[in-house]
Amino acid sequence: MEKQSKKDIMFDRMKEKKKEVRVVRRIVLIVALVLLLIVAVAGWQAYSYVSEALSPVDPDSEEVINIDVPIGSNLDSIAALLEDNELIKDARIYKYYVKFQNESSFQAGSYGLTQSMTLDEITESLKTGKVYHEPLFTINVPEGLTLVEIGERVIEPNTDYTAEEFMAQVQDEAYIDELMVKYPDLLTEEIKGEDVKFALEGYLFPATYSIYEEDPSLTLLIEQMLDATKANIEPYHAVLQEQELTPHWLLTFASLLEEEATSMSDRQTIASVFYNRLDVDMPLQTDPTVIYAMGEHKDRLFNSDYEYEDPYSTYTNQGLPPGPIAASGASSIEAVLNPNQTEYLFFLADSEGNNYFSTTYEQHLKYRDEHIGN
Q1: Nearest Cα to 168, choosing from 187, 151, 188, 186?
Q2: What DSSP string describes 317-336?
Q3: Residue 64 near residue 114 (C-beta atoms within 8 A)
Q4: Local structure of residue 189 (DSSP, 8 states)
Q5: How many Cα atoms occupy the beta-carbon half-sphere of 217 within 13 Å?
Q6: What is the pLDDT along the chain (374 residues), one digit of tens a residue?
Q7: In the 8-state DSSP scheme, what is residue 242?
Q8: CATH number for region 65-128
Q9: Where are the domains of the chain?
Q10: For the chain, percent helix, then strand, then coil, each to nearest 5?
Q11: How does DSSP classify residue 109?
Q12: What pTM was computed for the model?
């Protein structure tokens, strides 16, 4: 009887175990089905969301929405601009879509777009630079101009403003403070340094600007140029932060290259010369800083000029000047952060703009005698 009881107990346990196994299997099956359902629902929602994001915002809309794409804008800023103006539904989806389509090289300009346009139509418009509104006139700011020269050569001849009015605006302290709030990553306290001649020197980007108003304000013109500088500096923010450098440092360095060089390769090599000199505590000794310090154009400097005492002179001071000495183009900005690797410490240019580089002062003097003379 006792043995029979043990057998019954064993069978009962086996029955219970089988029952447990069946329950576990059911639970696993239910959990698996639930997970599959969740994945399916999530997948469907993701598919629906992406499909919705790829469709026009409003297929029936005929309202034209005007946007301005600043010079130097990248895909991130363009996608954000389109989303902010409700021309696309999701900036992230649009960026992935454009990258998947291998589209690039969007054109700056003023566009009239509608919410009924597809992503392909929007992309095609931005890629081809199809401008829907013709500018009333354009203003061209060449590379290498100072603020004074921008006023005299660009603002005064092309607008109703005088060079004096322009200079008064770019030196207005209250306006500078407003701009520093509007462009916090670009305009820092460095522009108010004790030895800085003009806070906005070097910050008005050289480019051709389209003007769509008959009587644009000075602030509109100035801020268009600042927008372009911001767009051209933004790609380098991460590099600058990593190296604990600032846009002011970058624009100051770039302005020296803009005034000294003619070709991209020369900019990169001259940048290497300046880096090499900074590394060994040699003065940069670049003539354009003396000319800027003296405040007058000179075709040739004399020995007495090199002794001119001013914070901007790189003959009487070590390191970079307190601020930019001119407006730098994109190639000069890029050359600062991507210089050639050389051991050159000297360079000079002949009357045709050809540069000659050397590692020793003796070689430098030889080039001077050969290409410059006395």
Answers
A1: 151
A2: SSSS-SS-SS---HHHHHHH
A3: yes
A4: G
A5: 5
A6: 444 565 566 556 666 666 666 666 776 677 777 777 777 666 666 556 656 767 888 888 777 788 888 877 888 888 889 999 999 988 888 888 888 877 767 888 888 888 888 888 888 888 876 655 667 888 999 999 999 999 999 999 999 999 999 999 999 999 999 999 999 999 999 999 999 999 999 999 999 988 877 889 999 999 999 999 999 999 899 999 999 999 999 999 999 999 998 766 689 999 999 999 999 999 999 999 999 999 887 778 888 999 999 999 999 999 999 999 999 999 999 999 999 999 999 998 887 878 899 999 999 999 988 888 65
A7: H
A8: 3.30.1490.480
A9: 1-54, 65-128, 137-226, 235-371
A10: 55, 5, 40
A11: E
A12: 0.69
Phi-psi region of 158 (alpha: psi -120 to 50; beta: other; left: phi over 0): alpha
CA distances from 154 to 68, 137, 145, 159, 206 (A): 22, 13, 10, 8, 11
Question: What are phi and psi for residue 255, nearest 5 degrees?
Answer: -65, -30
Cα–Cα distance for residue pair 207/155, rounded to 1 Å:
13
Residue with tokens 């670009």: 186
**The total number of residues written for the chain in this structure:** 374
Tell me how far apart the alpha carbons of residues 141 and 149 are, in angstroms, rounded to a whole number.
10
